[in-house]
Amino acid sequence: MNSSFKLFHHDQPVEVYDSNNDKISFSFANYLVANCPSLSTPYSPTPYLFNGHLQTAYSSYYNKQSPHVNFERELLTMTDGGQVSIDWTVGEKHPGDDTQTPVLIILHGLTGGSHESYIHGVLEKILQSPHHYRGVVLHGRGCGHTEITTPQTINGANTDDLRETLVHIQNKLAPGTPLVALGFSLGSNTLVKYLGEEKEKTPLQAAISVGNPYDVLACVNYLDATLFRRTIYSGTMANSLKRVFTRHMDMMKKHPHVDPDQVMSALTVRSYDYACTRKVLGYSTVNNYYRDCSSNRYIEHVRIPLVCINALDDPVACADGIPWDEIKVNPYVLLATTTHGGHLAWFESLVAPSRWIDQRLAEIAFALFKIKPMSKDLKQIHLPVD
């Protein structure tokens, strides 16, 4: 049951330059394949984790953390008075005063944080020899045991926190320090939405999206369609959201339109977002919130190299949500899919399974750091006509 990456992209991917040799340009797709040898290695799922449900279930219990990944926290106050935290990696090779080493900026999934095993897995590889890059994890509001200072917790529509945090990170570093972002699940949706909004104005030189739901309304409808998915997936995610809400109950009670009893009685993601998220953000319906936060509406406007990775058997970010047409018309985007892998899982090996995806993500990040930043002048950006 081997499953290699299948690549999907524009007929004429954007031309990129290797920063070590800016005399020769490469098709983005060809450049990535040439610089990421493990992309061609077949993925063979753990035999007893033979479908997306089992892979995803194992992922929820897999909590391996790397002893090589350590953090130092910084609290940031946003323009609206809200608070987020960012966790910087620290170590002998990249102390807190390091301002020139390339930085991988990571956005976690729903209610996650820098403790997640899928974050440790990729950070462990980029922090060590021979690269010794740095990482920084941005926590959504209320996540990562960060106190909120306004009655608002994590949601999929807010890209302003990422926008402001990137400015802060850029100001802390030496001019020209390479910045690449990596988003997982809801974090990848936020990242891609932000990239589509910013277009060429982002300080990022490239980005990676993993397990992106893209069309949040389609994915929530998919979860609602059967009792199993509604209970196992939507119910579990609702409980995670309610735990965040409970942790910040005193502040959330201050919102005039939020009824804590209604929030705590929610049994699905939709009912939680109906009771809480749409009211906090001022949406008339929960479907309008889902439509507005979906990155599928923005991905065709991305103007930096973007690698998207999805497993087609993902039971949370369902394949029906993948915006194939919008990816096809954008030469900056490359989609890599596997037949198997579940949601943020991709476990292999019979004994002590580990994530096959970790090495691939590290290689992709290394390759993207080497790309010469694109010109910010729209007239100089090569955009092939479909």
CATH architecture of the largest domain: 3-Layer(aba) Sandwich
Number of domains: 2
Q: N- to C-terminal separation?
A: 35 Å
What oligomeric assembly is this protein in? single chain
CATH class value of the largest domain: Alpha Beta
Number of helical regions: 13
Mean pLDDT: 93
The level of helicity is: 25-40%
Task: Give the overall silhouette.
Answer: globular
Question: What is the CATH topology descriptor of the largest domain?
Answer: Rossmann fold
Helix-strand pattern: EEEHHEEEHEHEHEHHHHHHEHEEEH
Sheet/helix structural class: alpha/beta
CATH superfamily of the largest domain, by name, is: Alpha/Beta hydrolase fold, catalytic domain
What is the element layout, followed by pairings?
Layout: E1 6-9, E2 15-18, E3 21-27, H1 28-35, H2 52-61, E4 71-77, E5 83-89, E6 103-107, H3 117-127, E7 134-138, H4 160-172, E8 179-184, H5 186-198, E9 206-210, H6 216-224, H7 227-247, H8 249-252, H9 260-264, H10 269-281, H11 286-293, E10 306-311, H12 324-328, E11 333-338, E12 347-348, E13 354-355, H13 357-370
Parallel strand pairs: 6-7, 6-8, 8-9, 9-10, 10-11
Antiparallel strand pairs: 1-11, 2-3, 4-5, 5-7, 12-13
Helix pairs in contact: 3-13, 6-7, 7-10
